[in-house]
Amino acid sequence: MKSITTQRKRILVTGGAGFIGSHLCKRLLDTGNEVLCVDNLFTGTKSNIIDLLNNPFFEFIRHDITFPLYIETDQIYNLACPASPIHYQFDPVQTTKTSVHGAINMLGLAKRTKAQILQASTSEIYGDPEVHPQPETYWGHVNTAGPRACYDEGKRCAETLFFDYYRQHQLQIRVIRIFNTFGPNMNPHDGRVISNFIVQALTDQPITIFGEGLQTRSFQYIDDLIEGMIRMMNNKRAFIGPVNIGNPLEFTILNMAKRILELIPKSKSQIVYKKLPQDDPKQRRPDISLAREQLDWHPKISLQEGLIKTINYFRSIINT
């Protein structure tokens, strides 16, 4: 049985029409809240929220958060920012503006309305890590002049702003660091590992591996992430983070490609190898000890179960 909140909150989700945001909007509505979804639709899409538009407690506003927003709200989930290299490198200056100016505008809104505000930060703030797995105490290894810096440094600056607003203005902040996440509503052309492999396998295209495929990643299913986000926002311990939200199970990229091909046995795709992009992290795995301790959170959905659901989603949208 779904739990219903005792008092309906008015909750703002920036980037709400994106992959993660659309799942969060649905979950917040299902638990009895009023949701205001804000998105400029650069990477988000109305198709992700089409089933929510007729809900009387859901509202969509097309808006770029690099410009101020004047509304009333009880909570803010700040997710707005392109998150895949293909998209955030398309206009790197705008990517940095979205992280930095967007954070300033949302923090200003939270200050005015006395709202709780959660920043969706990223494992990318650790860069190409020299510590493995990555705990929240690790400060990272980021190339400030590299092609990924617009996203990595933008998110790092956003975290700085959140903690400065907390110290200077006593804002009720929360900061999470999201590790690789997959599931329905992913953009089939966003260049992420799992979406790439699934779409390529379903359409019999070559499966592209960068480098030798020995770099590692940790993948969590979207429902586990949403649970972690909501627990972080509503935790009663005054725990503000930062906290890693991710699955500590680690796989090589090559192993992930093989697993997906096993789940799509009719695929005629073959694995091909391409040059490794600059600053691509060699290892990525979260230490989630803090999330277990403070939020009683850990991922529950297996990789196999999540992959099957995601493959079925992509199969439905590409009619294969």
According to CATH, the homologous superfamily of the domain at 10-182 and 222-246 and 285-300 is: NAD(P)-binding Rossmann-like Domain
CATH third-level topology of the domain at 10-182 and 222-246 and 285-300: Rossmann fold
Mean pLDDT: 94
Q: What overall geometry do the principal axes of the alpha carbons give?
A: globular
Q: Compute the number of helices.
A: 9
User: How far do the termini sit from each other?
Assistant: 35 Å
CATH class assignment of the domain at 10-182 and 222-246 and 285-300: Alpha Beta
Secondary-structure element pattern, one letter each? EHEEEHHEHEEHEEEHEEHEHH
Beta strand count: 13
CATH architecture designation of the domain at 10-182 and 222-246 and 285-300: 3-Layer(aba) Sandwich
Helix content: 25-40%
Q: Report Rg.
A: 19 Å
Give an account of the 3D structure.
Strand 5, helix 4 (149-169) and strand 6 form a beta-alpha-beta unit. The two termini are 35 Å apart. The strands form four sheets. A seven-stranded parallel β-sheet has the order 3-2-1-4-5-6-11, with helices on both faces. Helix 3 packs parallel to helix 4, helix 5 runs parallel beside helix 7 (253-263) and helix 5 packs across helix 9 (303-318). It is an alpha/beta fold. It contains nine helices and 13 strands. The protein has a domain at 10-182 and 222-246 and 285-300: NAD(P)-binding Rossmann-like Domain (Rossmann fold). The radius of gyration is 19 Å and the shape is globular.
